[in-house]
Amino acid sequence: MKKITGLYHEYLPNISGMAGWYYDYDTNLLDSKSKAAPFAKKLLLFHAETQEIFTVYEASEQQVISNFAVLEYYQGNLYFLVLEKVTEQILIMSYEFVSRQVTEVARIAAAGINFARLAFYVAPVLLAVQDDLNHRVEIYYPQRLSLPLAEDECFECQEGEKFYFSKWLADESLARRNAYLVKDAQGKTIAEGSGRITRFENGEFMMI
Fold it and tell me: In Å, how far from its chain's centre is CA 12?
């Protein structure tokens, strides 16, 4: 764990569920040219109150860090993705805030997976690709699932055995055009209604 002081950038993305914590990639937080999406070599955390920057993880020569998959905080751990090019494995990594330790949570074969499109969802921590071209949500962790995705739908989160999707209604005469769908693990719609699924700064989801 390397601590750097004296740097600050007001446009850093915050971590949902972690007030005052922000993150960035590579070494110079003021240099956007160092961020060659979707890969990075360093993951850093910035604490707004102390204005300290911590290097959480530095990829080896044969590794890259995804800077497309937004970091996900869940039950005291921060999750991020690493691609190991030699073994062609995708590593799900977690950083525990209390111990400041990085742990490998799981490995997934990279073959056939678009690493640059992988994203984290909750809860629990879920790794998936929203494939708009093929109209599917491909879930790779913690279990392998493939759910149908209509053209006007967007996957939002999981709660138990329920998978929540937001939907934009095409009917312009409607007072509210935001809707939601709830699907089961087989992709069957088990509930739907009017409202927008919103995630707040504390990481919680709410229907509004």
Answer: 16
